[in-house]
Amino acid sequence: MWPKILILTLVVALVKTEYKYETKYFKVPLDHFGYQRSERFQIKYLVNDDYWNTQNGPIFFYTGNEGQIEVFAQHTGFMWEIAQEFNAKIVFAEHRYYGASMPFGNKSLDKEHIGYLTSSQALADYADLIDYLQDHSIKPKYPVIAFGGSYGGMLAAYFRMKYPHIVTGAIAASAPIHMYPGMAPCDAYYRIVTSSFKVEGQSCKDNIKRSWKVIRDFTTSANNTAWLKAKWNLCDPVKNATDVQDLIDFLGSMYETLAMVNYPFPSDFLVPLPAYPVRVVCQYLNESITNSTLLLERIGKVLDVFTNYDKKSKCVDYKKGSDYGNLDASGWDYQACTEMVMPMCTNGQHDMFEPNPWNFTKYSDDCHSKFGVYPQPDAARITYGGDRLAAASNIVFSNGLLDPWTAGGILNTVSESVEAVVILDGAHHLDLMPSHPSDPPTVTFARSFHKQRIHKWIRQFRSRI
Amino acid sequence: MWPKILILTLVVALVKTEYKYETKYFKVPLDHFGYQRSERFQIKYLVNDDYWNTQNGPIFFYTGNEGQIEVFAQHTGFMWEIAQEFNAKIVFAEHRYYGASMPFGNKSLDKEHIGYLTSSQALADYADLIDYLQDHSIKPKYPVIAFGGSYGGMLAAYFRMKYPHIVTGAIAASAPIHMYPGMAPCDAYYRIVTSSFKVEGQSCKDNIKRSWKVIRDFTTSANNTAWLKAKWNLCDPVKNATDVQDLIDFLGSMYETLAMVNYPFPSDFLVPLPAYPVRVVCQYLNESITNSTLLLERIGKVLDVFTNYDKKSKCVDYKKGSDYGNLDASGWDYQACTEMVMPMCTNGQHDMFEPNPWNFTKYSDDCHSKFGVYPQPDAARITYGGDRLAAASNIVFSNGLLDPWTAGGILNTVSESVEAVVILDGAHHLDLMPSHPSDPPTVTFARSFHKQRIHKWIRQFRSRI
């Protein structure tokens, strides 16, 4: 179930603001860490120089995550909004194997080509690109600030950790860098999802929790198929056990997504949603509903908010799974099956989901049958570290307490220059989004904290030239 | 000419002390940064636990450089001598593609297999090995101190820079991490070689400088072949231009090696040498020798000291080039042809050598014809950085001013925890060698500086558990 989760997470706002940039391409080696393969290919990057002071203005560099880079450029309003104040160049770099940055064209995700899709290779791409943007200078002129949200936030932090000579500082928003095996309890993520619903009313959470058995019972009878298809506006009828599971997985992802993007303003997301979408859907569940049919009708209303808020959807395509949405993030399944092993589980006790323990053996077998690889559960911890962040510097980790990914985030300041900012009312990397009149003061504070630190890092950079 | 130089540098003392260790093997992936290749192979490592406090004693970890690890274990006396004081476990890890750590057996250095010989892969091997030695623990029990000399010193520093969560601190002895293109003047190395000879007398240096033309003139006549072979005890006669160049390259390397290993005590090296070998050979050159035959006779005496101090050599095998010596370091040529690009040049003005400008095009073409690869002159700088060491921490860079490799060393303290120690009377990583009654006070100071810093790093580690 879970590998699609992060994808959904990251299929973020299609915000209305249209930012302007030039689209460029940069050649990188397929393999930065060996010389057996000599192929090179192009990664895409987007640039805006409108506010740039070419003498010594900083480069604001978004470390692209799993998806077309345009999506991240369009919704990381924070970078655009502060560029003028800093006289910054803005760069959004696309992660290899996503969007148009394909080493082997449309065969890139084939088993025989996909193996160079790793975070280390992506970071090395970014390092090469920045070296180019600095004119390959021994003493680079421009301070570079890395920005990223979610997996992009992990990359921003890792970029500073691994290449501090290239990146002056990093704003790592909602970066679950502790989500690896043994580092965070596997049930924390779903506990946070649950608590987001519980906050809107105990009944909301209880009804959802009760709904799983109701759905399973209801769908055992073929007579109910037509009713459910009609009431829930499903594209396909629920005819067998696989369909039932797909539907339940879809609903699970829906609740997760609603929690993640529980922003204080309406957003055009993967699915367009109203402000505070969790509150909106909980309106339909805010009394104890013991009648099964009524409960199913109400869940149908929730589905309708999630899938058809803009009244443009024909039907609920619950079978689409991880392809749901318009971000082409199919490479993520492979990353989750190699280095990005992030155990998740539910127990049905402290969360509103069906019990689903973390089973690494099954996970591993599934990965092998799908990609011919076995996950390396220690790889990311060995490469990037875990608890010992004290040797790092100039990173701000921000996390919103409404965001399930906070389960793997850094919530406490580690040192003078590895700092945590907690955004009480924030969902998934709200601080990177365009500012909005409904923003809670906590995110406004986070953004000014970021700006202060960026100023400090730039001063540091300049004092060392 | 030059790729063999570093090899000679590192073909270090076959010291008399025999240290005891267990020989073990550890399985590592061929490619740590991608998943296209799934082969694994074994690297060798040596362990001694005699003094180890298994509760929380540190691990002293030598980041093996280009050669069999036993050679480094046997002559890094400093680690052995301080192990008891620190209750340390001692580990010497062999660098992939050297010694017995061959991914493809005796075919490892073939063009189709050698591409995974890189510093990044070697560091990742070491990270995996330490993770294993720490029982794959999320919160490792044992502080790890990295040690290394020369390329091994570069690796020790890089290890701390890239994996600070795994390595608590690093003693990087004679690590020329600024030897990359554009970072140090290409003639500095040979200027230091020259100055080591000049210190022993202006005439010594002048005679050597004059000798090149004398040798070239003398060897143009076939009549002189027999005389030179006999006087210099050459294994092969000097018959053509290639032979002349080989001989001149051999002599150049000899002067370099003499400068590098200009230790205050006799050592069994690649070639056994007396204490202060530069002083010893300069005894033969310490007057202005204008007579060509006499000069050649005297150079013959120098050759004899260098090649036959123990009276065991049958003849001078000047054609052996980079294979001269018993360290199997043939992989180094490949590393120098890929990421380890270290420009060197002479101009015959500020040095005692024939002018030999740095010609990257020729160098690059030679690499391509030999290995099918082109050197990447920016690679190491992008991966490891150059001037911007301020973000690093817990590294001591030590350099001896007698050592030509100091040309690419860090001679000035960068920050509170990236410190430089200059050893006025020190040759190549003298501080890592076993202590000796003739040690100058400057190296004794360096060693106690190292110990103090190691104590400090271990305290830091423990205070953060």
From TrEMBL, chains A, B:
Residues 1-17 form the signal peptide. Pfam families: Peptidase_S28. Belongs to the peptidase S28 family. The keyword Ribosomal protein does not apply. This is Lysosomal Pro-X carboxypeptidase. Gene3D superfamilies: alpha/beta hydrolase, Serine carboxypeptidase S28, SKS domain. InterPro entries: AB_hydrolase_fold, Peptidase_S28, Ser_carbopepase_S28_SKS. The keyword DNA damage does not apply. It comes from the Eukaryota. Keywords: Glycoprotein, Hydrolase, Protease, Signal. It comes from Loxostege sticticalis.
